[in-house]
Write a structure and sequence with these properties.
CATH class of the largest domain: Alpha Beta
Radius of gyration: 23 Å
Strand content: 15-25%
Helix content: 25-40%
Number of helices: 8
Number of domains: 2
């Protein structure tokens, strides 16, 4: 029985052209591979309309970096290549949230943040919030935590892991927009906010007795929130998505790479 030949790069190009109904050669190998892959689903399957496409603060940040990559991701399911990703931050997130849950429904805040923030942990805790933009698009967010004050106003909280003390560095702008987004979603869902949000950083400390436990430092940054900054960004995102493929930003590493590869 003849041995089955392994598909070559040329085969991938040919298959991609056939699948897309194209007669011209794809400009990059990545396009050929992407054409063979079904677009990534962009709808939420439970609790909300299945036909609406839901955007998030992460999506808006992608749009700010490069409108073309954002358009390709959301409209065609063509994602930027992902490098090596550490899962340590995800594990930290799970451990921290379980720790906070121990104090939910009590009159106490977790000792690690007691005296640094005001209010009580929301109980029961609602993690996800949704807001329809129009018939096709919506906006959602997933909070790490939420504090409720005595006058029933809400303060969004986001947990961050860092490699060192964040007070020695400038705030990443995306973090500000993230808190603005949470405040926007809370208010759109009938929950007035306090006008502030907290970033709680967790980072390793130094110690000479690590065998007794690894020291973890905690820093709380309190930022003013402005929900009004979210709407213009949502309008911009929808305008990009319903328009033809936009031009890339000049400093987009991914688009620059593709343009360079086209020369060969």
């Amino acid at each position: 029985m003849p041995r089955k030949r392994k598909a070559s790069q040329g085969d991938l190009f040919a298959n991609a052209k056939a699948a897309a109904g194209q007669t011209d050669r794809p400009s990059t190998f990545r396009q050929a591979v992407a054409a063979r892959r079904s677009p990534r689903p962009r709808t939420e399957s439970s609790g909300v309309e299945k036909k609406r496409t839901w955007l998030s603060a992460t999506a808006i940040e992608s749009m700010r970096r490069c409108p073309r990559c954002f358009w390709l991701d959301r409209n065609q399911g063509i994602r930027q290549p992902e490098g090596i990703v550490s899962r340590l931050a995800n594990r930290f997130d799970v451990v921290i949230k379980r720790y906070f849950d121990l104090y939910r429904g009590t009159n106490e805040l977790p000792p690690m943040v007691a005296g640094r923030v005001k209010g009580k942990l929301q109980h029961p805790f609602q993690e996800k919030y949704w807001h329809p933009i129009d018939d096709r698009y919506g906006y959602y967010g997933k909070l790490d935590e939420c504090l409720v004050s005595d006058n029933h106003t809400y303060t969004p909280v986001d947990h961050k892991t860092a490699s060192s003390d964040p007070n020695a560095r400038e705030l990443i702008p995306a973090y500000q927009f993230q808190l603005d987004s949470y405040a926007f979603l809370l208010e759109q869902n009938g929950r007035p906010t306090t006008g502030i949000g907290h970033l709680i950083y967790f980072f390793p400390g130094h110690g000479d007795r690590l065998h007794h436990g690894f020291p973890m430092e905690i820093s709380v940054k309190t930022l003013k929130t402005n929900p009004d900054k979210v709407v213009p960004e949502l309008k911009k995102a929808v305008t990009i998505l319903v328009s033809p493929l936009p031009k890339p930003t000049p400093d987009c590493n991914f688009c620059t790479y593709v343009e360079q590869v086209k020369k060969f």
